[in-house]
# Entry
Amino acid sequence: MTVITIKRAAAIAGLLGLLFNSTQSWSHHAFGAEFDPNRPLILRGPVTKVEWVNPHAWIHMEHTNEAGEKEQWMVEGGTPNTLLRRGLSRRSLMPGSVIIVDGYQSKDRSNRANGRDVTFEDGSKIFMGSSGTGAPKDGRDASER
Amino acid sequence: MKVLILFAALLCMSCLQAEQLPRTPEGRPDLTGTYDVATLTPLERPKAYGDRLYLSPEQARKMADDVAALKRAGDQISDPTRSAPPAGGDGSPGAAGNVGGYNSFWIDNGDQAASLGGSFRTSIIIDPPNGRRPPMTAQGSRRMAEFFSLFGKNTGAAWWLDRPGPGPYDNMEMRPNGERCLLSFGSTSGPPMLPALYNNMKRIVQTNDTVMIMAEMIHDARVVRLNSKHPPEHIRYWMGDSIGFWEGDTLVVDTRNFRERPALYGADANLHVVEKFTLLADGNLHYQFTVDNPTVWQSSWSGEYPWPASSDKVYEYACHEGNYALGNILRGARLLEQDAQALVADPSG
# Structure
């Protein structure tokens, strides 16, 4: 099992950023308009609800802060339609599952953040992106041919 | 003699292909179906390819392998003891503006380059020969400069207060149409209809006098009236007014009467798009388009790419139902402006 390093994760984030930035790859909205680079955070806790909505899915979770207080947070993901086509649904991430999220807080300072990297407790991704990594095989992945 | 035999053979194949096409009771090719237009081929050709329209099989394979490797890397296990990302931002470019985007499993932009007639393409644009949009007019450049002035580096401060005129976050009407869930982003509905980072499904429903082309994102349905006329110039539409006619077995769609900000990046209300949809024997569509917008680009430009038939489902994309982002953006801007005003009132902070 491979664990990616922070440096490698940054490189991947950069490449995905380039995907976001390519001519044909407009995202629904600029994350730079919504999230505050001066408010980085790491959240840990159980999922309480998944809002399976467009243009972006939102994962609700309960985070316990350093003072031991419980806080309710919402984490922004991508479009659920992509995952539906891979056979996943909001039930693929059940309430109670403990997740780790790193991202930045919304500029409106509500308890909302972008899900820059959303994983389970062991670091594995909550939804896997391609066949051979946990998703149903559908013939779309090069590794299936 | 050999040439004649070859020609006759090709003619027979063409006849056979035409005969094999599914047809409506009126004898037109039946385009009704679902298509997945995701492709790794970009709209504009990377400069390194020059005037080369085609990728070699090795180059196409490398492109697919590189993207697959990138996505696999994105799916690798992260450090469960990781800490928060850097204060001040992570340096992400573009729309991920200094705060990053989201995991790669949300992305679905295809797994190989576009292929037409068995040849892989370097770009969707085929004219000009360099595969890139022609230079902009002075008016088009000025308009783009005004557009880009709405974007500043995401420092977490109200940078727009230092500039004259209205700010980009003053009200919702200042925000892009896609962000407001009014119109597709990335020209998925177009026209021209282009691939995007995800949700690349199109659905066509055809009758004798109308063809509906729906883009999953953002649930935009274009209704093409066949053998009709455009309305008077003062009547304008988000996606323009589309009329169509059959040219042999090819559906030609002519669209004009756009509003000021069409889905196509950079275009204005003078946009005129001609599209051609041709059903192939394998069930896929050959999609071609020409963009003519003389107030924006110095010459017209054209492109083509395949629309592979798909058995996947098209899902509803009800954009307004969960668009929390727009509120977050506008409320956030108000708070940053208050911070700036407080700093002016009390520079000691």
Remarks:
- Residues 17 and 23 of chain A are 12 Å apart (CA to CA).
- The first helix of chain A runs from residue 6 to 21.
- Confidence is low (pLDDT under 50) at residues 13-25, 129-145 of chain A.
- The longest strand of chain A covers residues 35-51.
